[in-house]
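Endonuclease/exonuclease/phosphatase domain-containing protein
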Amino acid sequence: MKLRFGDSVVKEREKDNSGLHGVGFVTNQRTRNALLEWEPVSCRLARIRLKGNPANVSIISTYAPIRDATETIKDDFYGELQQLSSSIAARGYLIVAGDFNARVGPSDQTTRKILVKFGQGHRCENGQRVPYDIELDTPTRAEILKAIKTLRNHKAPGEDGLPPELYKQCPEVTAD
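Predicted structure tokens:
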């Protein structure tokens, strides 16, 4: 990754400076301007909260224990991740990204809202621990209408193949 002048690296690492673990974010000026909160949870978890439209966005950066780590270390990490993500989910959008040291396997009924079409391979033991059951609030009709109104014209269609202009023609109908 090439950093440009003005980019910043925000990170959290082991207190012993061993360099074994650490998570962080690379931000540009626009992201720094939208930064509402930075929370270094541990050397394996960090969170930023950004001002967004129609809602704020929280991003959790993860570095999960490797497969050979003790069960206690894994349990502590995933418990901490579950607690952190549960405390955020009701306050805007949530993105959990990073290195889970896991194969999550293909998307199925329990994971389709989280993995969408991006899961692959066979789910391993660490993949079983990834919290697929994060409670996500359904956006309100007002939030959907606001999002439709902010769509930009002449952009590529989304997964449904429909261009933004179509949604904007009848926002009251498409919001349902």
